[in-house]
Amino acid sequence: MDVIHSWSAPRSLSTSLMYSFAQRDDTEVLDEPLYAYFLKVTGAKRPYRDAVLSNMECDGNKVVKDIIFGPGEKKFRYCKHMAKQHLPGLTDELMKRGKHFILIRNPIEILPSFDEHVPSSFLELGLGDLVSLYSELSRLGKPPPVIDAADLRTDPEATLHGLCEDLGIPFQSTMLKWEAGAKPYDGIWAPWWYESIHKSTCFTPPRKYPLPFPLSLYELLEQSLPLYNMLRSHSRRTLPLPKIPIPANEKLLAWVGDELLPRESAKVSVFDSVVQGGDAVWEGLRVYTGKILKLEDHLDRLFDSAKALAFSSVPTREEIKDAIFKTLISNGMFDNVHIRLTLTRGKKVSSGMTPALNLYGCTLIVLPEWKPPVYDNAKGIMLVTATTRRNSPNNLDSKIHHNNLLNNILAKIEGNNAKADDAIMLDKDGYVAETNATNIFLVKKGRVMTPHADFCLPGVTRAAVIELVLKENLVFEERRISLSEFHTADEVWTTGTMGELTPVTKIDGRLIGSGHVGPITLRLQDAYRKLTEESGVPIPTYQTT
Asked: Is 252 in contact with 265 (CB distance < 8 Å)?
């Protein structure tokens, strides 16, 4: 006989699931066989305590040996367990034998009705025990399937199909319904807990509207919700999660506020200004062989942007650098890495526009990712011209490197719709400003030109490339440039930290030059490559040998 162990917290549809498995023609069920052992060891008070202790085996290891793994008449034995009943002193056989799975439910749904018979507490809720069970089973090489009660109620057939598949047993359609009323295999405690389930005949859809949440349990919710979310991240989902472009980025640490957090825990408050109004400034940084290129230049611009937006309680330069270094070192990221550095105005005490509500200080975010240049710098990219015009300094000065990027995003959508790599944005007078993501240069008859930084961000990479142009003794000009001049250019490239120096071979369907990467572009790409090798701020602890 194979034993199926179901581990859950109270009020998680565990009894409904037991009834579901009891409908199978190959399965017998046990309702919390370790309950008496739990009551005896912990001394927990229950209105039915004496009846349980008198009628059930209290020796936990005898329960495991003689009842859970004892002889039976059917192919499977389904054991419904509460996670808190797995106590020290039980034989290791309980975890090593059988098929285990974990049933979870959001504590915000459990807690409103939890203390009808038992006072609410972190220990009684048992989510900590569920996490421990998941860890122990994973250590044994048996990471258990996790199902969520919400999925069970929303789509019981698909959820049960998936669970049966994970357990290696065939699904039976009889699992979807049962007769109303008490069952002969119900535990002694059924009159106290099972009144509503005895009225049911199937997994019922979730409530349209929740019960009011008791504020007296708010702290308990705060304690337990992260554990639920951790287990939820391992649950089987009907729809697969999107694939992360670079799998190595699935497990990374990001800096938020004043601490490092795992990817899925790296979040800001809904009261943060970046959520409330895109009220933040940012920089993109690149790491090359243990050094951060142009770090001081990027920090200069970050502080200038924060000052222009009148941020207060801004972290110091050394504090920001320290957070960057700690984040990179903790991730072991020393090369081929892009960092999204964000400084928000911070969390508000209440939602609203006024910065007078920002009383917590700024929020610093350091998000590193393994990320090579995002464009094809060998063959080049294609651009189209967007109808969306670049912001004028009359409205929102692009010299402030702010997070309110809708102007750029609208242009990028036009580029995506045209199957282009990016989109050129014009200023209010019809001259080229930049692309939705980068600065832009052209070459005509040996002269290198780029638009004035009046309607665009004066990029750090742009400035570095201008220096390289001058070092290469090329003729350079910064002026207003019309779109037709880009259409008829000999060479075009874009610059940005995310993509470095990227050739453009086609604009609005017109080939640029020969349609291949031009000689001056190649020359400057080589010069830029040398710059990344020879300069940058070293990351502490990085060793080249």
From this structure: no
Residue 545 reports pLDDT greater than 80: no
- Distance (Å, rounded) from C-alpha 347 to C-alpha 470? 44
Report yes or no: 118 and 65 within 8 Å, Cβ to Cβ: no
How many residues does the structure list for the chain? 545
pLDDT band at 90 (very low <50, low <70, confident <90, very high): very high
262 dihedral zone (left: phi>0; alpha: psi -120 to 50; beta): beta
Read off the pLDDT of residues 185-239 as tens digits, 9 standing for 90 and up.
999 999 999 999 999 999 999 888 888 898 999 999 999 999 999 999 999 876 6
**Coil/strand/helix, residue 20:** helix
- Residue 134 is inside which H or E element, if any? helix 127-139
Element (H, E) at 423: strand 422-426
Token pair belonging to 360: 């917590």
Domains of the chain and CATH, by start: 2-234 (3.40.50.300), 247-370 (3.30.470.10), 381-533 (3.20.10.10)
Alpha-carbon span 206 to 110, nearest angstrom: 13
pTM of the model: 0.89
- pLDDT score of 263 more than 90: yes
Examine the pLDDT at 388 and tell me if it is beyond 80.
yes
DSSP secondary structure string for all residues of 231-283? HHTTB--SSPPPPPSSGGGGS-EEEETTEEEEGGG----TTBHHHHH--EEEE
Backbone angles phi, psi at 108, to 5 degrees: -65, -20
Q: In whole angstroms, what is the distance from residue 501 CA to residue 476 CA?
A: 17
* Cα–Cα distance for residue pair 258/209, rounded to 1 Å: 37
Q: Please determine, for residue 241, whether its predicted confidence score (pLDDT) is greater than 90.
A: no
- Spell out the alpha helix ranges (H) of 258-388: 273-277, 295-308, 317-331
